[in-house]
Amino acid sequence: MTKKCIVKKVSDIEAVPTSHGAGLKQVSGHAHPTMDEHFIVLSGKGTMTADGRKIPMLPDTYIGVPAGCRHEIIVEDEMVLFTIGVATD
């Protein structure tokens, strides 16, 4: 499958609120079949495991998780994340 560039006005994008485990110490392993997910760590500390790889989640870290990639998060110190999910279907 070839991915295509997505161009939209921000005002045309439907916002879908999600807690994605807000307040939890762990977000269990899961995958989004049709959604790429992007994380920017603003503060705190944790670890993401994605595709079997442990990734430190520290301030000023960006992590891109492509659709279908199994991932989980363990929070070590309360984190603030900026997260964008882009569904392609």
From TrEMBL:
SUPFAM superfamilies: RmlC-like cupins. Coiled coil: none annotated. It holds the Pfam family Cupin_2. This is Cupin domain-containing protein. InterPro entries: Cupin_2, RmlC-like_jellyroll, RmlC_Cupin_sf. It comes from Xylanibacter muris. Residues 29-82 form the Cupin type-2 domain. It comes from the Bacteria.
